[in-house]
UniProtKB/TrEMBL annotation:
The keyword Membrane applies. This is NMDE4 protein. It comes from the Eukaryota. It comes from Bucco capensis. One of its GO terms (cellular component) is membrane. Coiled coil: none annotated. The gene is Grin2d. It is found in: Membrane. Keywords: Membrane, Transmembrane, Transmembrane helix. SUPFAM superfamilies: Periplasmic binding protein-like I. InterPro entries: ANF_lig-bd_rcpt (IPR001828), Peripla_BP_I (IPR028082).
Length: 200
């Protein structure tokens, strides 16, 4: 399917579903629109055909789902996201970076995979350490602000939840660490969705 506008997508998928004996659909697209996910969710609910979304707009996290839908969304893994980020870092010759995480599930695997990527590369990466942020007992963000300022790297790889990212960027903005001269890459499988845009 080369055309993912709503009408074409619905017509083509309905044609395929009505003409072939299909037990399920695996869908991948290059669009970044969450409208694709809404269309697939609707089609799954109406046709009772399971649809698995693996990339693009189809995989942007959609809530709530249609009643009766068997629509499963699979976004890119943390490893895939990191591979792309390291390609960007290499392309721009940004070899010095620091890693920041919260205690969000998977943070240890994130740190381990960063080490795998840097240790197995011929690039002279300058890994300036890992900072694990504890946001639960710092409601005012005072310690967080101090920790972010003490970090000397201008390139920062951050692994956390969407809610934690909003708090971290709010504090980074107040500390003057989110403007020109600082580059943040946020990694995680729960960062998608455009129903509520963050302030920072």
């Amino acid at each position: 399917l080369n055309d993912t506008n709503p009408r074409s997508l619905i017509v083509r998928l309905c044609d395929v579903l009505s003409s072939l004996r299909i037990h399920g659909v695996v869908f991948e697209d290059d669009a970044r629109s969450d409208a694709v996910a809404q269309i697939l969710d609707f089609l799954s609910a109406q046709t009772a055909v399971p649809i698995v979304a693996v990339n693009g707009g189809a995989a942007i996290v959609l809530t709530p789902k249609e009643k009766g839908s068997t629509f499963l969304q699979l976004g890119s893994s943390t490893e895939q996201q990191l591979q792309v980020i390291f390609e960007v870092l290499e392309e721009y010759d940004w070899t010095s970076f620091a890693v920041l995480t919260t205690f969000f599930p998977g943070y240890e695997a994130f740190v381990a995979y960063v080490e795998v990527l840097t240790d197995s590369s011929f690039i002279g990466w300058e890994h300036r350490g890992v900072l694990t942020l504890n946001l639960t007992d710092d409601p005012e963000g005072i310690r967080l602000r101090r920790q972010l300022r003490e970090l000397s790297a201008q390139i920062r790889l951050l692994y956390c939840s969407r809610e934690e990212a909003e708090l971290i960027f709010s504090v980074a903005q107040q500390a003057g660490l989110a403007g020109p001269g600082y580059i943040w890459f946020v990694v995680g499988t729960t960062l998608g969705g455009s129903e509520r845009l963050p302030e920072h």
